[in-house]
Every structure is written in structure tokens, then in C-alpha cells.
Write a structure and sequence with these properties.
It is built from no helices and eleven strands. By secondary structure, it is mainly β. Strands 2, 4, 5, 6, 9, 10 and 11 form a seven-stranded mixed beta sheet that branches. The protein has a four-stranded antiparallel beta sheet with strand order 1-3-8-7, with no helix packed on it. It is globular.
Length: about 120
């Protein structure tokens, strides 16, 4: 199972920016999807953004135009650039890896707190 390690969370004021990173423990080959989910207190975990190995992306409506997902294949890393942050973006953000035929992987989570 691929291990994922996130970094880059923290405390930021509303309107600010943060960049999250997630590094996989091994090279990822073939068709796969890397994504970011988030879970706020008392709420279900939800998809924020995802990117396929081919570069196709998908975003939650709530973050479109503010967040940007990208990946560096050579470094097996996925990034989430978050801009114009709002207090409602406060959550624990989790990196996720999916590939058919393999167990899906989750990172340990990184806290993002946006103050008003």
C-alpha cells in the first residue's frame, strides 16, 4: 500500500493562501487518481479536488476558482494551492490515492484553519 505524507497546513487569515503538499512513498505508475478531501468538525469527509495521472481535474463547487490541484509525476507529489481562503474552508485536509487493483491510501491529515 502506498504511504502518503501531507504537509503545508496551518493558520491563515481569511483571504489568505496556503499550499498543501502530499508525497507518496513510492513511484506511482499507470492510471491512478490523487486527490484532496477535507473533513470539518461534525461534518462528513468531502472531496475537494482530484487529478488523474493524465492530468484531468475535478473540483468541488465550493472551491472552484480558488483552489488549484497539480501533480509532479517525477516526485510522486500532489499539491493543492488554496487562495482566497474562507473560514468555512477550515478542516482537516487528507490526501488520497486510488488505483484499480490496489488498496486505496489516505494520508494522516493536515489541519487548515482560516480565521475571520
Amino acid at each position: 500500500q502506498v504511504q502518503l505524507v501531507e504537509s503545508g497546513g496551518g493558520l491563515v487569515q481569511a483571504g489568505g493562501s496556503l499550499r498543501l503538499s502530499c508525497a507518496a512513498s513510492e513511484s506511482i505508475f499507470g492510471s491512478n487518481i490523487l486527490g484532496w478531501y477535507r473533513q470539518a468538525p461534525g461534518k462528513q469527509r468531502e472531496l475537494v479536488a482530484a487529478i488523474t495521472s493524465g492530468g484531468s481535474t475535478n473540483y468541488a463547487d465550493s472551491v472552484k476558482g480558488r483552489f488549484f490541484i497539480s501533480r509532479d509525476g517525477a516526485k510522486n507529489t500532489v499539491f493543492l494551492q488554496m487562495s482566497s481562503l474562507k473560514p468555512e474552508d477550515t478542516a482537516v485536509y487528507y490526501c488520497h490515492f486510488f488505483k484499480a487493483g490496489m488498496l486505496p491510501s489516505w494520508g494522516q491529515g493536515t489541519q487548515v484553519t482560516v480565521s475571520s
